[in-house]
Amino acid sequence: MTSDDLLARHRAVLPSWMPLYYAEPLELVSGSGRRVTDAAGRTYLDFFGGVLTNMIGYDIPEIREAVERQVRTGIVHSSTLYLIRQQVELAEKIARVSGIPDARVFFTNSGTEANEAALLVATNHRRSHQVLAVRNSYHGRSYAAMGVTGNRGWSASALNPLQVAWLHSGERLRGLLARLDESDRIDAAVEDLREVLATQTAGDVACLIAEPIQGVGGFVHGPDGLFAAWKKVLDEHGILLISDEVQTGWGRTGEHFWGYEAHGVTPDLLTFAKGIGNGFALAGVVGRAEVLESVPAISFSTYGGNPVSTAAGNAVVDYLLNHDLQANAARVGAILGDGLRAATADLDSVAEVRGKGLMLGVEFVRPGTTEPDPTLTTRVFEACREGGLLVGKGGLHGNVVRMGPPLTLTEDEAREGLAILVEAIRSSVAAAEVIA
Ligand SMILES: Cc1ncc(COP(=O)(O)O)c(C=O)c1O
């Protein structure tokens, strides 16, 4: 069967609002390390990792064997009504590395459900359904998660169980706070928070939910320290802070294990997903016992923290810590980030190369302006694929190429991908100039 047949069948039975990448969509049929092979037999270096999810890479023996061991026991599922050794062990590890004191962990199957659980906990703890969220955010596809998602293109419904008030993100390039210097942006973002609390809420707000680096939003973020400045104000009111670490967790930013650590603050709750399962459905929320215990009825997830996913999760966390992948993300990410900055410094269609560690984005604009150029972005994206490199796309205006490769990326692979990326950018910019 060819990929063409599969594409027609896909379009015939799957909804169009679940988009496919590329003018000619890819079917990935095998993978090893940081490389994947498509149905036509072509191999690509993968800098997107199934949206930052194949965090250790493909076909990693330690993870495969842990999963196979669990499957061989015959217990693929038992339900949370019974003790699950793998789940308890993983919760112990996550509680230990979370940085949250007296931590409790609740496992779910997806980042959406993790955020839903965090919002459930926070709104019950505070007995309020008022929530603060950040513009340009993405938190998932349930009603509450869409309700705190500040991106029209990813919010498929206006129905919202929460009353949400919106904060400026403090990002550098766009919005009312853009172009202020870092400390002025923090001051302005704090002023914005105080004003929103005073004008758009009844005061007794449950929580603020925020991503340390906005993933779908195109890897933009406010200045380091912003969460701490916000939290000072939140603490005056007893408002909880939820850090959505679905993309930023597990050392991906290189400089820290969690994104929130760049801000010099510990959140009340953090949510995790994607990388922890290295492809197996595993996610969850961590919080102080006093907060996480605020659920007044039974609440369980049939598959949340199931034996197979948590077997994978344990192997992932062990691998991550034993190989110090955070340090690798910092080292290899610097090769990629610095290389990209140097290679694009003379291009006025590149507004910014940004991000931390192995979470890097390139924003494309019309030359010399901040007007988004999604057409050029798509051209670069397709050219990367032609060159043998898979990357992602994002940003509110679809004008950011995103990279979130496995944290096991080697220096040679970083240089190989960098060369493809730079060539894709340069040839696409040159082609755009000819058309203009
Ligand atoms: C920051 C963030 N939070 C939550 C989610 C939702 O996760 P899931 O797709 O596993 O429901 C995502 C997914 O991209 C995300 O990037």
UniProtKB/TrEMBL annotation:
Gene3D superfamilies reported in the protein's UniProt record: Aspartate Aminotransferase, domain 1, Type I PLP-dependent aspartate aminotransferase-like (Major domain)
Tagged with keyword Transferase: yes
Entries under InterPro entries matching the protein: Aminotrans_3 (IPR005814), PyrdxlP-dep_Trfase (IPR015424), PyrdxlP-dep_Trfase_major (IPR015421), PyrdxlP-dep_Trfase_small (IPR015422)
Alphabetical keyword list: Aminotransferase, Pyridoxal phosphate, Transferase
UniProt KW Transferase keyword: yes
EC numbers on record: 2.6.1.44
Molecular function GO terms recorded: alanine-glyoxylate transaminase activity; pyridoxal phosphate binding
Domain of life: Bacteria
Enzyme class: transferase
Cofactor(s) listed: pyridoxal 5'-phosphate
Subunit structure: Homotetramer.
Similarity annotation: Belongs to the class-III pyridoxal-phosphate-dependent aminotransferase family.
The name this protein goes by in its record: alanine--glyoxylate transaminase
